[in-house]
Design brief:
This protein is of the alpha/beta class and 477 residues long. The chain folds into 3 domains: 115 residues, no CATH class; 132 residues, Rossmann fold (3-Layer(aba) Sandwich); 165 residues, 2-Layer Sandwich (Dihydrodipicolinate Reductase, domain 2). It has a 9-stranded mixed beta sheet with strand order 6-7-8-5-4-9-10-12-11. Strand 7 and strand 8 form a beta hairpin. The longest helix has 29 residues.
Length: 477
C-alpha cells in the first residue's frame, strides 16, 4: 500500500468514526442504549477511541473489525425501537460477517438478535443517588454517573456530602473533579454555583451538603427522596454505623465501598449480586482486591476445582499512607509510601468466601504496597483438583473473558509489553496477564492486573444498579 493509500484509509476510518458519534449519543440519550465493541463502551468516546476500540477486536478474534463493517450495524440499531439495554455491535458484526458477504440482511439480522430489547418496557422510575464522601472513589463514581447523563438515565447523582465547609471548599472540590493526576481531565464542563452551594457537571446539578455525621442531613430539603447513599468514607463499616444514614429523611438504602463487618452482605458484582434482595437496605461492595480476584477464582474453581491457594497483592499506595515518614497507627504504614515497598495485611483472600462460599477456608493472603499511584496486581497461587497446562488454562480464561457471564468482570491480555500504567482506566474488575501464567499438573499461578480505583468503581456502579432494581439487558447474550 502506498503512502497516499495509508492516509486515505485513515481518513475514511476517521470520517466513519465521526459519523458514528451522533448516532451513539442519540441512542443513549433518547433510548437508554449503551453501545459497546467487545465490552469497550463507546458512550462519549472520541473518534480516536472509537477507532482504537475496533483495532482491539483483533485481540479477541484474531483480526481487526473495520469501521465500514460495523457502521451499518450502528445505523440499523438507530432504526430499531430498542430501549434500556447494552448492545455489543462488535460481537454482532463479527458473527454476521462470518456467514454473510453483503449488508442486505443486516437489519433483519439485528431485529432478530435484539428482539428481547425491542419495545422493552421503560416503566422504571429514575432513582436518586447521594455520594457520602468525595475522595478517590467518590469522584470516580461521580464521573461514571455523570457520563450517563440523559433523559433515559436511571441513576441520578443528586448530592455529595462532605465534612468541613470552609471558604473556598466548593471550588476546590470542583477543581478535583475537573482534574485528576491519574485519570486525566474530566470529560466535559464543571461549574460552581456558590449561591446555592452546588456543582453543575455536564448539566447534572449536584447539591453539596456539609455534615459531620450521617444522621445530620435532611435530604428532603433538597427534593431528594428514597435515595441510595453510597458511603465512600470508610469510617463506618458495621450495621450500627452505616445505619446512621437511614436516620436521615430521604435516605432509604446504603452501599459501602469497602469491606463490611458483621452480617452485612459483601457483594462482588458479576458473582453474587443475585444475593441482594429488595429487603437489603445496607450492602457492601467489598474491596477492590476482592472484586479483582473473585471472578477469576470462580472461573477457575468452576472448571478445575481449587483445593487451596494463596493471594499476594502488589498494591499501589493509598491515601491512608504517609508521603514522608511520620506516625501511623498501623505497622509499617508510617513509612514513606512513594519511597518504599511496604508489607501489610489484606483481608481480601478471606473476604472471597463471603461472595464465593465454596472457597471458605481455602485461601490465605498478604499484600505489599508499592510506589505507584494506581493499578495493582494479584498473584494467585493455587493447588487444583484437576490437571491443566498453561495453554489450556489461558485458552479457558480467554474464552471466559469473551463469552461467559463473567465477561464484564474479567479481561484478558496476551501482550508481552503491558505494564501497570497501561491499565489505568480499565473498566474490568481484573485483567488476566496470560504471558505470566504458570501451570503444570495441578499447580497454577495467575497474574491479575486491576485498576484499583476505576475498575473497582465500575463494579460499585453495578451493585448500585442491582440494589435499586435497575439491571440492564445485555445483548447478544
Amino acid at each position: 500500500m502506498s503512502a497516499d493509500k495509508h492516509l486515505q484509509s485513515w481518513q475514511e476510518r476517521f470520517e466513519m468514526a465521526e459519523a458514528m458519534q451522533p448516532l451513539l449519543g442519540k441512542l443513549y440519550r433518547n433510548q437508554g442504549v449503551e453501545v459497546m465493541i467487545y465490552g469497550k463502551p463507546l458512550l462519549n468516546a472520541s473518534t480516536i477511541e472509537i477507532i482504537k476500540a475496533h483495532r482491539l477486536v483483533r485481540r479477541h478474534v484474531g483480526e481487526k473489525l473495520r469501521l465500514r463493517e460495523s457502521f451499518p450495524f450502528v445505523q440499523a440499531l438507530s432504526k430499531l425501537a430498542v430501549k434500556q439495554c447494552r448492545v455489543d455491535i462488535g460481537k454482532l458484526a463479527v458473527n454476521y460477517w462470518r456467514d454473510h458477504t453483503d449488508v442486505s440482511e443486516i437489519e433483519s439480522y439485528m431485529a432478530k438478535e435484539l428482539a428481547d430489547a425491542i419495545d422493552h418496557a421503560d416503566d422504571v422510575a429514575p432513582r436518586d443517588v447521594v455520594l457520602y464522601g468525595f475522595g478517590r472513589i467518590g469522584r470516580l463514581l461521580a464521573r461514571l454517573l455523570i457520563e450517563r447523563t440523559g433523559r433515559s438515565n436511571k441513576l441520578r447523582l443528586r448530592a455529595i456530602v462532605l465534612r468541613g465547609g470552609k471558604k473556598g471548599d466548593l471550588e476546590k472540590r470542583a477543581s478535583l473533579l475537573r482534574r485528576d493526576s491519574v485519570h486525566g481531565p474530566f470529560n466535559g464542563s464543571v461549574e460552581v454555583d456558590e449561591e446555592n452551594n452546588a456543582i453543575i457537571a455536564n448539566g447534572t446539578y449536584i447539591q453539596v451538603i456539609y455534615a459531620n455525621s450521617p444522621d445530620e442531613v435532611d435530604y428532603t430539603k433538597y427534593d431528594i427522596s428514597d435515595a441510595l447513599v453510597v458511603d465512600n468514607t470508610g469510617i463506618w463499616k458495621d450495621e450500627a454505623g452505616l445505619g446512621l444514614h437511614l436516620k436521615s429523611p430521604g435516605a432509604s438504602k446504603v452501599l459501602l465501598t469497602a469491606p463490611a463487618k458483621g452480617a452485612i452482605k459483601n457483594i462482588v458484582y458479576g458473582v453474587n449480586e443475585g444475593d441482594i434482595t429488595p429487603e437489603d437496605i445496607i450492602v457492601s461492595a467489598a474491596s477492590c482486591t476482592t472484586n479483582a480476584i473473585t471472578p477469576v477464582l470462580k472461573a477457575v474453581n468452576d472448571k478445575y476445582g481449587i483445593e487451596n491457594g494463596h493471594v499476594e497483592t502488589i498494591h499501589s499506595y493509598t491515601n491512608d499512607q504517609n508521603l514522608i515518614d511520620n506516625y501511623h497507627t498501623a505497622d509499617r504504614r508510617g513509612r514513606s509510601a512513594p519511597l518504599n515497598m511496604v508489607i501489610t495485611e489484606t483481608g481480601a483472600a478471606k473476604a472471597v468466601a463471603k461472595a464465593l462460599p465454596e472457597l471458605a477456608g481455602k485461601l490465605t493472603g498478604n499484600a505489599i504496597r508499592v510506589p505507584t499511584p494506581n493499578v495493582s496486581m494479584a498473584i494467585i497461587s493455587m493447588n487444583l483438583n484437576a490437571e491443566t497446562s498453561k495453554d489450556e488454562l489461558n485458552e479457558y480464561l480467554k474464552d471466559t473473558a469473551l463469552q461467559s457471564p463473567l465477561q464484564n468482570q474479567i479481561d484478558y491480555t496476551d501482550s508481552t509489553e503491558i505494564v501497570s500504567s497501561d491499565l489505568v482506566g480499565s473498566r474490568y474488575a481484573g485483567v488476566v496477564d496470560s504471558q505470566a501464567t504458570i501451570a503444570e499438573g495441578k499447580r497454577a499461578i495467575l497474574y491479575v492486573w486491576y485498576d484499583n480505583e476505576f475498575g473497582y468503581s465500575c463494579q460499585v456502579v453495578g451493585v448500585m444498579q442491582t440494589m435499586l432494581g435497575l439491571t440492564t439487558l445485555s445483548l447478544p447474550a
